[in-house]
Amino acid sequence: MEDKIFLQGLEFYAYHGALPAENEIGQIFTVDVEMKVDLSVAGASDRVEDTVHYGEVYEDIKAIMHDSPVQLIEHLAERIALRINSHYNRVMETKVRITKKNPPIPGYYQGVGVEIVRVNHHD
Q1: Cβ neighbours of residue 49 under 8 Å, at least 6 residues apart?
Q2: Which of 44, 98, 104, 111 could form a disulfide with 73 if both were Cys (CB 3.0 to 4.6 A apart)?
Q3: Every domain of the chain and the residues it spans
Q4: Catalytic-residue membership of 100
C-alpha cells in the first residue's frame, strides 16, 4: 500500500540551532511531512472522518516549530514524527524532512537538513 498524504514546503521562522547566533537571529526552516495512510476508505466515502486532516497536522507541526528553541533539527524531526504517530491512528508511517535554508556556514547551497522515517507502532 503506497497511499500517502503530504504537507510540502511549510516555512517557519524560528530560533533553533546549536550556535548562539542561530538562537538570537533566527532563520527560515522548511518542513516536509509525508504520511503513509490507507486512503481507500476516504476515497470511497468522501468523508473527512475517514482520513487524516492535514490542517490539524499542520497545526501540530507549527506548534513544535514555534516552541522553545532546541539545538538540533534532528530533535525537531523526532518530535514531529512522534506527535503525528501518537495522535493519528490511521498513519502507518511518517517521514519528516527539515531543511535549514541559510545555516551559518560559508558556501553556496540550497539548504542543509535531515530526513527521518518513523513507523507508527499502534500500542
Answers
A1: none
A2: 98
A3: 4-119
A4: yes
Q: Domain spanning 4-119 has what CATH number?
A: 3.30.1130.10
pTM: 0.94
The model's confidence at residue 123, banded by pLDDT at 50, 70 and 90, is: low
Which three cell numbers, joined as nine digits, stand for 96?
519528516
pLDDT tens, position by position, 32-66: 999 999 999 999 999 999 999 999 999 999 999 99
Query: What would the pLDDT profile of 83-117 be if each residue is shown by its tens digit?
Result: 999 999 999 999 999 999 887 778 888 889 999 99
Instruction: State the Cα–Cα distance between residues 38 and 51, nearest whole angstrom.
Output: 8
Containing 4, the helix (H) or strand (E) segment is: strand 4-14
At CB < 8 A and 24+ separation, what contacts does 20-29 make? 21/104, 22/103, 22/104, 23/69, 27/100, 27/101, 27/102, 27/103, 28/100, 28/101, 28/102, 29/65, 29/73, 29/76, 29/98, 29/99, 29/100, 29/101
The one catalytic residue in 4, 95, 100, 101 is 100
